[in-house]
């Protein structure tokens, strides 16, 4: 009987005419009476309390989609501001306790569930909508990877990925994941796919590599190997949601790669044919997913590719002129643009200020064709959960540690600017105060914020 009452209550709070709510309210109270009035009467005000969680869950189960030069969710404009959290599926910054999975040559280990949950709570407090995470899409070439060797899959590697996607959903955060990396990092990338087929080159010199690297894009066997990996990843069923990654709206976009290019750094030498084939394959497996061109920079030859929804670039440091030029390029084909990474620190004297950089992005939201749909700072680290007394450090100088008592005044000022910007992208004004975040915080089995 309780289930029946809850069903009617759910119907009463769905998006239906007020007359239906008026009709169903006496029925709910009659059912309650038949059970000995063990529940409070269902007043209109009480029914209203059902609305927010139900609408929130429906929204979280809805797809983000593109209409021309803007992204939409449930018929309203949607923005994608947030953070890069590259380590959610596989980490390189923490040595785990003895007995836990660890691959010493790459310092690779699985992050604890508590670390993942704390990040979600932190981003929610910061007003973020989006995470970009390499290791939720790129995981090849070492024993802890999703695909340690060609055609060999490690199902244990999905545990942290599943949890990250589930916790993102429960915190109202969407995910964008690159599918391969341009570099020879611990989580794997194009060089692993080349080595799987006997092309033994590396990217130890990141400014120029062996021209054979282009085989990743042009060798049909290697391209098919990559597509097989994509298929296995996207068709994996998440143990916490029962959805494949292809089905889950939480992952709103897949990126063809991270900072993809050719033999020379920044050359944008990614064939149109490869980008078209990979983007079309993603759409075939996951028709509701948006596809991001993973080329490092806006490659003009890619602009006409029908299957690409979002173009992107990275800013080290932020540069207002470059940002406006990129927006104009993408606007010419009526698509969307996302700042995929940027230096948030203000340590580079050549950088445009965050306030002026954000002002361009925010100002576009008041136009009929925003084009730029958000920005994702590089990159977020929090505590070494379960140890909530130690923050995890990274070595690139761009780690943002929200709430770290050792933060400089400059860092906290920048973090406050970021938080105000994220909320402004949602149409909300907040002051410079930085609220505390519990460690690890709410695991959000049911969260309606």
What is the number of helices? 12
Averaged pLDDT, please?
Answer: 91
Structural class: alpha/beta
Instruction: Estimate the helix proportion, in percent.
Output: 25-40%
SSE pattern: HHHEEEEEEHEHEHHHEHEEHEHEEEH
Largest sheet: 8 strands, parallel
Estimated radius of gyration: 23 Å
Distance between the termini: 30 Å
User: Overall 3D geometry?
Assistant: globular
The beta-strand count equals 15
Q: What topology, given as strand order, has the largest sheet?
A: 10-9-8-7-4-13-12-11
Low-confidence stretches: 1-6, 12-17
The fraction of residues assigned to DSSP E strands is 5-15%
Please give a structural write-up.
The protein has 449 residues and is an alpha/beta fold. It is built from 12 helices and 15 strands. It has helices at residues 2-13, 18-34, 44-60, 113-126, 158-170, 190-196, 215-218, 220-234, 272-285, 320-331, 354-364, 409-424, and strands spanning 65-67, 70-73, 76-78, 82-84, 102-103, 108-109, 130-132, 174-178, 251-255, 290-292, 310-315, 336-342, 372-378, 383-384, 387-391. It is globular and about 75 Å long. Mean pLDDT is 91; it is low at 1-6 and 12-17.
């Amino acid at each position: 009987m309780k289930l029946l009452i809850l069903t009617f209550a759910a119907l009463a709070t769905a998006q239906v005419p007020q007359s239906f709510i008026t009709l169903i309210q006496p029925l709910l109270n009659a059912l309650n009476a038949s059970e000995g009035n063990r529940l409070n009467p269902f007043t209109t005000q009480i029914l209203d309390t059902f609305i927010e969680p139900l609408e929130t869950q429906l929204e979280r189960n809805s797809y983000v989609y593109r209409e021309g030069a803007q992204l939409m969710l449930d018929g309203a404009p949607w923005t994608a501001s947030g953070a890069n959290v590259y380590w959610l599926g596989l980490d390189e910054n923490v040595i785990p306790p003895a007995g836990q999975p660890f691959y010493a040559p790459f310092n690779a280990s699985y992050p604890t569930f508590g670390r993942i949950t704390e990040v979600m709570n932190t981003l929610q407090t910061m007003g973020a909508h989006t995470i970009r995470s390499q290791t939720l899409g790129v995981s090849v070439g070492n024993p802890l990877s999703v695909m340690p060797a060609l055609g060999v899959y490690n199902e244990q590697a999905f545990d942290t990925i599943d949890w990250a996607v589930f916790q993102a959903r429960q915190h109202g955060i969407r995910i964008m994941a690159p599918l391969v990396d341009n570099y020879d990092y611990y989580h794997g990338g194009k060089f692993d796919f080349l080595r799987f087929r006997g092309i033994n080159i590396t990217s130890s010199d990141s400014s120029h590599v062996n021209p054979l690297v282009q085989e990743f894009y042009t060798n049909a066997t290697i391209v098919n190997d990559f597509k097989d990996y994509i298929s296995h990843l996207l068709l994996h069923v998440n143990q916490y949601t029962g959805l494949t990654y292809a089905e889950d709206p939480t992952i709103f976009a897949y990126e063809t790669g991270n900072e993809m290019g050719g033999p020379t750094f920044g050359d944008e030498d990614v064939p149109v044919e490869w980008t078209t084939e990979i983007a079309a394959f993603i759409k075939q497996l996951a028709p509701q997913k948006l596809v991001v061109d993973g080329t490092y920079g806006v490659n003009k030859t890619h602009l006409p590719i029908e299957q690409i929804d979002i173009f992107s670039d990275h800013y080290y440091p932020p540069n207002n002129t470059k940002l406006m030029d990129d927006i104009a390029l993408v606007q010419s084909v009526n698509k969307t643009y996302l700042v995929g990474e940027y230096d948030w620190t203000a340590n580079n004297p050549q950088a445009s200020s965050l306030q002026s950089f954000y002002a361009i992005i925010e100002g576009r939201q008041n136009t009929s064709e925003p084009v730029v749909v958000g920005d994702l700072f590089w990159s977020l680290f929090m505590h070494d959960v379960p140890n909530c007394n130690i923050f995890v450090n990274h070595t690139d100088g761009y780690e943002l540690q929200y709430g770290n008592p050792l933060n400089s005044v400059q860092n906290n000022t920048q973090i406050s600017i970021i938080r105000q910007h994220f909320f402004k992208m949602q149409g909300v004004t907040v002051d410079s105060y930085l609220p505390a975040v519990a460690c690890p915080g709410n695991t959000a089995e049911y969260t309606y914020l």
